[in-house]
Amino acid sequence: MNIKRLELGFFKVNCYILSLENVNIIIDPGADFDIIKNSIEENHTKPDFILNTHGHYDHIGAVRDIVSSYKIPFYIHEFEEPIITDPYKNISSFLGENELSLKTYDLIKNGDYEFFDDLGIDIINVPGHTPGSIVIKTGRSLFTGDLLFKGAIGRTDLPGGDPEEIKRSLERIKKMDKRSIIYPGHGEVTNLEYELKSNYYLGNHFLKEDS
Fold first, then answer.
1. What is the distance between the alpha carbons of residues 48 and 50, in angstroms, rounded to a whole number?
2. DSSP code of 92?
3. CATH number, position 20
4. Count: domains in the chain
5. DSSP code for 209
6. Which of 21, 94, 113, 171 registers the highest number of CB atoms within 10 A of its CB?
7. How far apart are CA 71 and CA 195, in angstroms?
């Protein structure tokens, strides 16, 4: 397995180019198509598909260019369809950017993950930041999107956010292998053992509050 991290756009989203034994995946191409393209060409790896952790603008900004250039599918959880098609919900209309509404996508049906299972990828629905947020798990690598960052978690005050749901999702993450490497949607790569010790939002004092 090989993982290339690219920090893209104004919001410094982490886009990952994940190369497994038989497949090359782009995770969360949020901006800067030219940077993504150059990285692909430098590594001589043609992507097979895009797989997104969720549908906010800063994570989908380069999707159309990649789909158009490489003629590959774009996969996202079915609960994110209202977000990727609505500039208000994907917050592109808030940011003074061109309003973004995606028209070409393949929906991952909730619970029907056989295609990804066959590739050695676990899809875990983790609502809270958005209803269709997912963690992408392969081996001990967890691509957590905007659920979990180093020392922090994702917001719940944007359209589709739910503070109680994100607590339940974090409880699921807490039970995973402590040796797991966390590849977040923003910020530094970390690991679950470190976050369990130091991240306030994984402590019982937060997770049990008002629940």
1. 7
2. G
3. 3.60.15.10
4. 1
5. T
6. 113
7. 38
**∠151-146-120 over CA atoms, to 5°?**
105
Query: CA-to-CA distance for 94 and 144, rounded, in angstroms?
Result: 24
* DSSP three-state, residue 97: coil
Residue 98: left (phi > 0), alpha (psi -120 to 50), or beta?
A: beta
Backbone torsion region of residue 75, taken as left when φ is above 0, otherwise alpha when ψ lies between -120 and 50, otherwise beta: beta
The interaxial angle of helices 33-42 and 63-70, nearest 10 deg, is: 40
Token pair for residue 141?
A: 């690598």
Structural domain boundaries, residue 112:
2-207
Q: Does the pTM of the predicted model rise above 0.70?
A: yes
Residues 83-96: pLDDT tens digits?
A: 999 999 999 987 75
6 pLDDT higher than 80: yes
Residue 103: which pLDDT band, with cuts at 50, 70 and 90? very high
Judged by average pLDDT, the poorest of 4-8, 40-44, 77-81, 156-160 is 40-44
User: Contact 129/167 with Cβ under 8 angstroms?
Assistant: no
C-alpha span between 100 and 144 (Å, rounded): 23
Read off the tokens for 80: 């994110």
